[in-house]
Design brief:
Elements: E1 15-17, H1 32-51, E2 55-65, E3 74-84, E4 88-99, E5 104-117
Length: about 130
């Protein structure tokens, strides 16, 4: 079970998704590539809002698989901006699996994805002022 500090503000997931049977590997767990894809989608939502336009993933700085994702898990992806550069954003993503009909929450993965803001020619552009 995830232990949230009493003084931490409540937060809403950027993305909530349920894996499908086609997403299972030979071990009965969800493919790592599937969860990376979901994290990239969630990070892109946050980065696109902040950039006020198109963004592209340019790097995954860190990635840690902590626990497997199981077929009946409900996956929630939380995100926040960790760093803001001139044209890029580093977004920290945390994936939490809700299991056992909502009885347990398990942090399964986290990572930092870097996105760059793109102009109409798909070239890096400055982020809007804060």
């Amino acid at each position: 079970m995830i232990d949230r500090a009493a003084d931490s503000p409540p937060r809403d997931p950027i993305l909530r998704v349920v894996p499908r049977p086609a997403d299972i590997n030979a071990n009965g767990h969800i493919f790592g590539g599937w969860v990376l894809s979901q994290m990239d989608i969630a990070g892109g939502i946050v980065a696109g809002r902040e950039a006020q336009g198109a963004v592209a993933t340019v790097a995954i700085e860190t990635m840690e698989f902590i626990a497997p994702i199981l077929l009946r898990d409900i996956i929630s992806i939380y995100a926040h901006i960790e760093r803001r550069g001139r044209t890029s954003l580093a977004i920290r993503l945390e994936v939490v699996a809700t299991r056992d009909r909502g009885e347990n929450e398990v942090k399964v993965t986290e990572g930092v994805f870097t996105f760059v803001a793109l102009d109409a020619n798909h070239r890096p552009r400055p982020l809007p002022p804060v």
